[in-house]
Amino acid sequence: MDFFHKTSISVFGILLLGIIIQYLKSKKINSMFEVNNIKNELSSIGSVLLIIAHPDDEIMFWTPTIKSLISYNIPMKILCLSNGNYDGLGVLREKEFDNVSRALNFTDNKILNIPELQDNIKKYWDPIVVSRQIEEFLNNNPDIKTILTFDKNGVTKHPNHISCFNGLKYYLKNHLEESKNKGLKIYTLDSFNFIMQYTQFFPLFSFIFKKYGYFSMTFFNSYKWMRLYKTQFNLLRKAHVILSCYSYYNSYTKIELKDI
Questions:
Q1: Rounded CA gap, 116 and 105, in Å?
Q2: What is the tally of structural domains in the chain?
Q3: Is 38 part of any domain?
Q4: Alpha helices in the chain (DSSP H)
Q5: Rounded Cα–Cα distance for residues 10 and 195 (Å)
Q6: CATH number at residue 122
Q7: Phi and psi of 85, rounded to 5°?
């Protein structure tokens, strides 16, 4: 299937999203936090922590969620486990991450640059090391009540993405009881393969029947915020923020702590 064929299918998928928007609203698929009146009750859940692997992951994959949380005045904090130094641009990407944080008005974000957690497309991170960083961040932010991160497939199967999930799972299994953050709720972002992600159809219909998720009718926020990552804003990134389903909707699976 050539690029233009895939593009036309993806655009059609976006149009289809608009057609069923009223159905989405009627089902009220905008509450990840199991509340009936989201505007009035979300503030009671405390802060939301997003755990990512690289600076720009939050824009590449989580813009609908970020936009929704901002609109409901829900405080969000981001723990970025590496500075994305795979191409030697880590220092610049740290500055870009700070610029995006300011644009989002997120004041408590943290980006790491430690030897054990370096950007590497071929390497899984030690879950104990990841867990230690999560534990430290949570201990310093006891107001966090909800955690979002990648699922076991990491959206793109990037080993660093998957390591976020594995590290969080290790933390929940081994250190949750001593945590200051009582009543944590955990949600992982649903992964779709390349064809499904860019043709939109399966993720879209899957999203309709998911209990937890956010949708957005525009990619403009993704595009605007992605532009702040100047070192990464190439043709592939531009195509991604326009065509990927992750610019329009996020669906989640809730992780039950008893099943960890």
A1: 29
A2: 1
A3: no
A4: 3-19, 21-27, 38-41, 57-71, 90-104, 127-140, 154-157, 159-174, 194-199, 201-208, 220-226, 235-243
A5: 10
A6: 3.40.50.10320
A7: -90, 20
Let me know if residue 37 belongs to a domain. Answer: no
Collapsing DSSP to helix, strand or coil, 40 comes out as helix
Is residue 40 one of the residues assigned to a domain? Answer: no
| Structural domain for 239, as ranges | 3-31+45-259
- What pTM did the predictor assign? 0.84
Token couple for 6: 């895939």
CA atoms within 13 A on the CB side of 229: 26
pLDDT per residue of the chain (260 residues) written in tens, 0 to 9 = 443 333 344 555 555 555 454 444 444 444 444 333 334 444 456 899 999 999 999 999 999 999 988 888 889 999 999 999 999 999 999 999 999 999 999 989 999 999 999 999 999 999 999 999 999 999 999 999 999 999 999 999 999 999 999 999 999 999 877 777 778 889 999 998 888 888 765 666 666 666 677 777 667 889 999 999 999 999 999 999 988 989 988 889 999 877 77
